[in-house]
Amino acid sequence: MLISRNKPSVVRQAGRALLLLLFLLILLRLFFIVPARVLSASMMPSLQIGDILLVNKMSYGLWLPFSNIKIMNIGKPDRGDVILFAFPGNKKKAYLKRVIGLPGDVITLQDHTLSLNGRNIPVKSIGEQISVTVNHKSRLLEEEKEMLPGQNHAVLFDKNLSCNGKLTRYEVPAGRYFVLGDNRQYSFDSRAWGFVPEKNLIGHPFVILFSWNPVMNRVDWSRTGMRVQ
Fold this sequence. Notes:
single chain; mainly beta; Umud Fragment, subunit A; 8-stranded antiparallel beta sheet; 2 helices; 17 strands; 12% helix; globular
């Protein structure tokens, strides 16, 4: 006797598809990709408040979920990379900064001049000004291009701030990284709290998923899909 079986209902099929999708999203979230939201102006003009980034968690290693145990070494940050990392002072907070110094590098800073291993890093003016709100006051900052070895990126300087001429020197220890914000004078970074341990690295942001403009209260489609560089 031929017994016919009822095909799974549409609702059941949809439920299975949703469960599979949820499982894949959880897997991606745990091991491969994590979202990050830009909350401050410290990385302007490269990253702006309201940007939602996708971060590749496998750029610098494979980690056991919910722990600081690295399962596999995959790569290390390059000089000039924007990285997401657990803040050394409070690992519950995640920061976005740019890698300037690698292990073994010697960094010196004097006013607006950055030196790497005894050589000044060239900075080229592009003749642009950007308005940034600092301590509830609007300031016009100069946008310039900083040319690290093998990588160029935009930086901001407040030329109206007085310079004290003090020279500071940093020697990057093994397993540590020296990071700065692109909004150079308004960034809380390695100048204030030291180096980023390799074990604190979370991943490398690679694309702006979308950007929410808090002033206009709408999505900024012009930034959506931009590569982080």
